[in-house]
Write the structure tokens for this entry.
Amino acid sequence: MTSVGSRAGLVTRGWHGIAAGLAGGIIFGIMMTMMGMMSTIAMMVGSSSVAVGWLVHLVISAGYGVLFALIVPAGLGVGATLGAGAVYGIVLWVIGPLLIMPAMMGMPLFMFNTTAMMSLLGHIIYGLVVAGVLIGLRRRVAQL
């Protein structure tokens, strides 16, 4: 077993974050696809393709999963980790769909409508899934 601060420990945490971020991204992505939002995600890179939207969404999801895995301590309890995941989802909602995405697309910032509220729910679910998967992966490593 490697220590959390070692290079191997950081790599493991990174891979855990990618896996957790992709799991959360897939769940959230299904929700976004059902709401017809994937082409909007694709517009951030100049496309309207749902497939491009999925690719952009999953890359962002994996990156944010890594960040979560690196900032949330491994020794945190289940409830605290899940709570951190929910708060993380809210923070991502503010950063992404309320600030960065509208700024990139020339839209007004901080628009609160039904779509924004559904996005908030999706981001919270993303954060909870990321936290849950991360808990499971960390427990599995701890048992090795």
